[in-house]
Specification:
The structure is a single chain. This protein is of the alpha+beta class. β1 and β2 form a beta hairpin. It has helices at residues 3-11, 24-30, 38-54, 75-87, 91-107, 113-120, 126-134, 151-154, 157-190, and strands spanning 14-15, 18-19, 22-23, 58-63, 68-73, 111-112, 138-141, 144-147. The termini are far apart. The chain contains nine helices and eight strands.
Amino acid sequence: MNEAELMIYLLTRKNGNSIIGATEKELLNGLVLTDRNARYKLIQLLQELNTNLAILGLNVKYNSANGRWFIAFRDNVADIIEKKTFAMLSSTLAATLFTILLLSISTGGPVQKSEILEMRNRKRIDDHLRELRDLGYIIVKKSTVSLTPKIFYYINTDDIIKEIQNIDQNQAVKKLEPQKKSANKNDKISGKRKE
């Protein structure tokens, strides 16, 4: 097996229905890269593989939630797949999963069930949590819920965080706009003009 074949094998390993890929250590061991430049060589090999896979609509990605590299569809293809993935979930189930994701991002870890209930404005979410757990997206422990790395194969959290920041910035700008208008009214009343 050559380097490319071995890397593809390691990066496409599955656990059940989910691709788990390989950690940096697994890749280094599999490719027998042991010298002090091993990490640099690995990154070069991953970049070369990524370039070659681009022709097929694939690329090499890193799942920061579990520290694994894997092969995925390129973003434009991935958007379609992600939409289909969430289209398979009912709207209420997808909303619960998204709520858990947002709360996990904001707290940096497991989420209290009570927080999910409050944010979703629901009396019960046990059925949703059970379904999401059975699908492998979450782990439920007594009163806490945490995401599994599986969700990060389908969602780019960096994009979500950027969107949330854009929303926050847009709201901040809108809050400032009425103050600007009132300042302009005061200028007109006093007869002063801003230059």
